[in-house]
Amino acid sequence: MRTVGSVYSRIPRDLPSWRQLRAFEAVARLESISAALEESVGARLFERQRTGCYITELGALWLPRVRRFFEHVRSAVADLSGAAYKCNCEQDHQATTSQPDRDF
Question: Which residue positions in the chain have pLDDT lower than 70?
Fold first, then answer.
């Protein structure tokens, strides 16, 4: 039985991810980053005018939710990183305290 790590270890790391390739294709096909985003969510998020690109009412409603989502992800990563650091420190401490002193 293969582990996830063994499958991913054979994927070249210098290649773009599937997600990046899908995003590239959508932007190239629609010739617009905002249009590619709108196609993926199925809603018009920006109003395009000669003077620029402006967020729509629907986009303005969605924006705080997207920001909260990113804040939750940042917080989760920070929590995980802190727990991993603590776990690694405890393992390092156990490894150094459980080994008998040896004179070389």
Answer: 1-12, 91-104
DSSP string covering 34-102, please?
HHHHHHHHTS--EEEETTEEEE-HHHHHHHHHHHHHHHHHHHHHHHHHHHHHHHHHHHHHHHHHHSPP-
Other beta carbons within 10 Å of 34: 17
In tens, the pLDDT along 73-101 reads 999 999 998 888 778 777 666 666 666 65
Tokens encoding 73: 């992800």
DSSP 1: -
SS3 5: helix
